[in-house]
Design brief:
The structure holds two protein chains of two kinds. By secondary structure, chain A is mainly α. Chain A is 64% helix and 5% strand. By secondary structure, chain B is an all-alpha fold. Chain B has two domains: 11-69; 83-135, no CATH class. The longest helix of chain B is centred in the N-terminal third of the chain and has 22 residues, at 11-32. Classes of the chains: A mainly alpha, B mainly alpha. Chains A and B meet through helix 1 of A and helix 2 of B.
């Protein structure tokens, strides 16, 4: 009986070690993939830094040779471009033009969105992108109403699609 | 520190750099046609390095600009006389020559200051002298001949 138990114990121990080894091998494979990904990302970053170094050298040389200027007092700056759908008030201007073309008539939000996509040459294939655009248009319409350009003809709490028209101003 | 706003390379910067490149091309052309002059070698060396440096920087600041299609801007080397020196020279010329014509006055200044007419732009000097004359109050003996 003791011999049998010892034999089974050994088998159990072996199975456990084999299992641990298997898990470690899986982890190793995962780490190897991560390492390869990181190495390729690192290589891309290194290439980017090398390109930036070349550009910095070219711009430094141009500053020094053509304008006798030094780049010592130029502080690094990262410029992140804004993600405007239509920059510089293009969306508001287009919506206003639409309402003027409608000659005082009301427009539904879906009509406005469709016309905007045509006018600004936008296309939103995915549902999240369409949703984002819808929120953007909604905020623009709300802002235009807040500043007195438009008036809503719907109950904002009804959950139905909004209808808007140019606000009539008294002379 | 206060924000510097959305500082970026705008078209006006790109166009300015393109113009500077054309200006340097014009200056190089100027010195290349006067290569016998003792200053020419030094100027050409300086201009060549500046043009080479700008040619590398231009694609970064003004992408899409074809460097080979850029024409040099006309370049004139101004007479190295500051305004106050020129005015003094004009007054001296008027006193000495007694009612000179403009050309005589310009010739006097050129001779007095040893201006190299092969290098410096005499037309511009004439314009500057005329401007000084226009600004002078008319007095006995030093008024230019009309």
């Amino acid at each position: 009986m003791g011999i049998r138990m010892a034999h089974i114990g050994l088998r159990h121990a072996l199975a456990r070690v084999l299992g641990e080894k298997q898990a470690l091998e899986r982890k190793r494979a995962t780490a190897q993939v991560q390492l390869a990904t990181l190495q390729s990302a690192l290589a891309a970053i290194e290439a980017g830094i090398a390109r930036a170094d070349n550009d910095v050298m070219a711009l430094n040389a141009a500053l020094a040779q053509a304008f006798a200027d030094s780049a010592a007092d130029v502080s690094p700056r990262q410029t992140v471009p804004k993600k405007h759908v239509a920059p510089w008030g293009g969306m508001t201007r287009t919506i206003l033009a639409m309402f003027r073309a409608a000659n005082g008539g009301p427009l539904r939000k879906s009509e406005i969105m469709a016309q905007l996509q045509t006018a600004l040459d936008l296309s939103y294939e995915s549902a999240p992108a369409r949703r984002g655009f819808s929120i953007y248009v909604q905020r623009t319409l709300n802002n235009m109403a807040r500043y007195g350009y438009l008036e809503g003809l719907h109950d904002p709490k009804s959950g139905r699609e909004g209808q808007w028209r140019l606000k009539v101003t008294s002379e | 520190m206060a924000s510097k706003g959305y500082v970026r390379v705008r078209p006006v910067h790109s166009l300015g750099l393109v113009k500077q490149y054309r200006r340097l091309l014009g200056e190089r052309k100027f010195w290349a046609t006067r290569s016998q002059h003792p200053r020419a070698a030094g100027e050409l060396e300086k201009l060549n390095s500046a043009i080479e440096a700008l040619a590398k920087a231009l694609p970064l600041v003004a992408p899409g600009v074809a460097l080979t299609g850029l024409r040099p801007l006309p370049f004139h080397l101004a007479v190295p006389l500051p305004g106050h020196v020129l005015k003094r020279a004009v007054l001296a010329g008027l006193r000495k020559l007694r009612e000179p014509a403009l050309e005589e006055l310009v010739a006097y200044i050129v001779k007095t200051y040893g201006i190299d007419l092969g290098l410096h732009d005499v037309c511009r000097l004439r314009q500057r002298v005329q401007k000084v004359l226009d600004g002078l109050p008319a007095r006995n003996g030093i008024a230019p001949r009309p």
